Amino acid sequence: MRALLLLPTIALLAPGCYYDTEEELYGPSCDASVFTYSGVIDPIIAANCRTAACHGPNGDNGELVTYEQLRAVVDDGSFRQAVIVEKRMPDGGALTTCELTLIENWLNTGAPND
Predict the structure, then answer these.
(1) In the chain, fewer beta carbons within 10 Å around the N or the C end?
(2) Which of 41, 48, 31 is nearest to 112 (CA)?
(3) Which residues contact 18 (CB under 8 A, 6 or more apart)?
């Protein structure tokens, strides 16, 4: 009888036993000393800014799809002003402290393309 009760319990718990990476479980690393455009900055932009209504392909407010497009607003200072100083972007949401730190450190190192 106990074996019959134990079997369904094991079956219910088994799907929870798999190996996730730390990034899958907790999101991107917030090691502010390690950042790349393609691995860290671009995913933040993609998740928060790259929508059709904002900065996606043919976006209403200019595209931020490529590094070159982002670099143009970095170079003119408007990206830092809107995101770091005024914290008015992304529109309708806020970046996490980790995301802001990663972006600021990337900007402070000259916004390299990896």
Answers:
(1) N
(2) 41
(3) none
Are 44 and 102 contacting, i.e. CB atoms less than 8 angstroms apart?
yes
Region 43-67: mean pLDDT is 91
The domain segmentation of the chain, as residue ranges, is 21-108
**52 backbone dihedrals φ, ψ, rounded to 5°:** -60, -35
**How many alpha carbons lie under 13 Å from residue 25 in its C-beta half-sphere?**
6
42: left (phi over 0), alpha (psi -120 to 50) or beta: alpha
**What is the reported pLDDT for 51?**
86
Phi, psi for 54 (deg, rounded to 5): -120, -95
Rounded CA-CA distance 56/14 in Å is 40
